[in-house]
From TrEMBL:
<dbReference type="InterPro" id="IPR033132">
    <property type="entry name" value="GH_1_N_CS"/>
</dbReference>
<keyword id="KW-0378">Hydrolase</keyword>
<keyword id="KW-0326">Glycosidase</keyword>
<comment type="similarity">
    <text>Belongs to the glycosyl hydrolase 1 family.</text>
</comment>
<dbReference type="Pfam" id="PF00232">
    <property type="entry name" value="Glyco_hydro_1"/>
</dbReference>
<dbReference type="InterPro" id="IPR001360">
    <property type="entry name" value="Glyco_hydro_1"/>
</dbReference>
<dbReference type="GO" id="GO:0016052">
    <property type="term" value="P:carbohydrate catabolic process"/>
</dbReference>
<dbReference type="GO" id="GO:0005829">
    <property type="term" value="C:cytosol"/>
</dbReference>
<dbReference type="InterPro" id="IPR017853">
    <property type="entry name" value="GH"/>
</dbReference>
<protein>
    <submittedName>
        <fullName>6-phospho-beta-glucosidase</fullName>
        <ecNumber>3.2.1.86</ecNumber>
    </submittedName>
</protein>
<dbReference type="GO" id="GO:0008706">
    <property type="term" value="F:6-phospho-beta-glucosidase activity"/>
</dbReference>
<dbReference type="InterPro" id="IPR018120">
    <property type="entry name" value="Glyco_hydro_1_AS"/>
</dbReference>
<feature type="active site" description="Nucleophile">
    <location>
        <position position="374"/>
    </location>
</feature>
Length: 475
């Protein structure tokens, strides 16, 4: 126990969620289908993500967890009350794009979809929880894939902007912190999820991935411009999935491998924060026959509209060496085991010190405020015979990470806040299943969608409330 407050008074503490992983109601009140609504659960999911072409229609023989998720759509009052009980000061949510523009290309938004989020924001206000909003969290409307080919089409910039403008006008008075794209860098490894790309028959996938990335980067910069114009004082952040790469040894070649692998992610932070393409990309593009369509107007927009802050998810670090392939599009990255680090049940390295390292690295590189918008342990939880759930493993994970966050603040890092991933159990983005749980609140729903949906507090529930109340003194 530190006995002293480790986090500043106005520090934002809370949790983070994504519409498709907890809302359910996938076709309610006029919502259209989004890409995740055709992603099945279980082993079929990885099959689908690798070859999406034949999976773009809902099939009767497959189970789609995002259709019901944990049915927050009907339980939002109860769930937000529980977040209030933990004394959250912030909740990061995403607006589910296809609730607002069902096919993505309509001229006018779906009023019923907008009203749903009005109600969610009203409810958050009751408990003085500040909403933090991701505009696009792996939820591109499916219509934009079928009709336009996803983010490989420049037209998506305009559809995205129409959607973003709708949100800024409707919710701008209630939301200060916005994020343009969740984990934008994940497009390199998961082009369907993060870029709505169907690349089954595309010969140069790297070309397609970086062209789509470019359009997303331009869309993000244009949205930043619009936000600043429409909502003075509001802030736009980029959002990276950040897992720093360590070199396996002090062999110079291994250091280069780690440097290059880090650039796969940092490229997205660099463009967002500096407003231009880093020169290290030139060689990579040349070697991979990538020729991007970038206009003078694009360059100007990127240059003039950099982000206000850098947000990121942190779950793990990685290790690499010169003998393992290090490419800037990381589809084939092979992890090297780090002997100093344990792994979760899902093989994710657990490295709290890596979070301090990441905070320092990102702050030094960008010199902009940072926001940790996801962190947590996915684990299987057991209910004891007395009904309790003793998730000490989750408490330990979060405790150790928060101690390192406090160290980074002492190092001089300017940090806006910390929101844990999935404060209530949600469908896993990776597996599409329920058994990988992150929550302080257990939800009775299994991998097949069975269960009462009862919400039950885990041991970590009280622990996290105490952390928030004491500003970290109990850590
Ligand atoms: C991030 C996503 C989240 C979330 C989290 C945990 O990549 O932004 O949507 O799901 O990872 O991943 P998983 O659900 O696969 O455990």
């Amino acid at each position: 126990m530190s006995q002293e407050a480790l986090f500043p008074k106005n520090f934002l503490f809370g949790g983070a969620l994504a519409g498709n992983q907890y809302e359910g109601g996938f076709d309610k009140d006029g919502k259209g289908l989004s890409i995740v609504d055709v992603e099945p659960a279980g082993p079929e999911r990885s099959q689908m993500l690798a070859h999406p072409k034949n999976y773009l229609n809902i099939r009767d023989d497959l189970y789609y967890p995002s259709h019901k998720a944990i049915e927050f759509y009907d339980h939002y009052k109860e769930d937000i009350r529980l977040f209030g009980e933990m004394h959250f000061s912030a909740l990061r949510i995403s607006v589910n794009w296809a609730r607002i523009f069902p096919n993505g290309d309509e001229e006018t938004p779906n009023e019923a979809g907008l009203e749903f989020y009005d109600q969610v924001f009203d409810e958050l206000e009751k408990y003085q929880i500040e909403p933090v909003v991701t505009i696009s969290h792996y939820e591109t409307p499916l219509g934009l894939v079928k009709k336009y080919g996803g983010w490989n089409n420049r037209k998506l910039i305009d559809f995205y902007l129409r959607y973003a403008e709708t949100l800024f006008k409707r919710y701008g008075s209630r939301v200060k912190y916005w994020m343009s794209f969740n984990e934008i860098n994940c497009i390199t490894g998961s082009p369907f999820i993060a870029g709505a790309l169907v690349l089954d028959d595309v010969p140069n996938k790297i070309q397609a991935i970086y062209q789509a990335s470019h359009y997303e980067l331009v869309a993000s910069a244009k949205a930043t411009k619009l936000l600043h114009k429409l909502v003075p004082g509001a802030q736009m952040g980029c959002m990276l999935a950040f897992s720093p790469f360590y070199a396996k040894t002090c062999r110079p070649e291994d250091q280069i491998a780690a440097l290059q692998q880090n650039r796969v992610t940092l490229f997205y932070g660099d463009v967002h924060s500096r407003g231009y393409y880093p020169t290290y990309m030139n060689r990579f593009f040349k070697e991979n026959n990538v020729e991007l369509e970038i206009t003078d107007e694009d360059r100007k927009v990127l240059k003039e509209n950099t982000v206000d802050y850098i947000s990121f998810s942190y779950y793990m670090s990685h290790t690499t060496d010169a003998d393992h392939k290090s490419k800037l599009a990381s589809e084939a990255f092979e992890p090297v085991k780090n002997p100093y680090i344990e792994e979760s049940d899902w093989g994710w390295p657990i490295d709290p010190v890596g979070l301090r390292y990441s905070l320092n690295l990102l702050y030094e590189r960008y010199q902009k405020p940072l926001f940790i918008v996801e962190n947590g342990l996915g684990a299987r939880d057991d209910i004891e015979s007395d009904g309790s759930i003793n998730d000490d493993y989750r408490i330990n994970y979060l405790n150790d990470h928060l101690v390192q966050v406090a160290e980074a603040i002492k190092d001089g890092v300017d940090l806006i806040g910390y929101t844990t991933w999935g404060p209530i159990d949600v469908v896993s983005a990776g597996t599409g299943e329920m058994e990988k749980r992150y929550g302080f609140i257990y939800v009775d729903r299994d991998n097949k969608g069975n269960g009462t949906l009862e919400r039950r507090k885990k041991k970590s529930f009280d622990w996290y409330r105490d952390v928030i109340d004491s500003k970290g003194a109990v850590l």
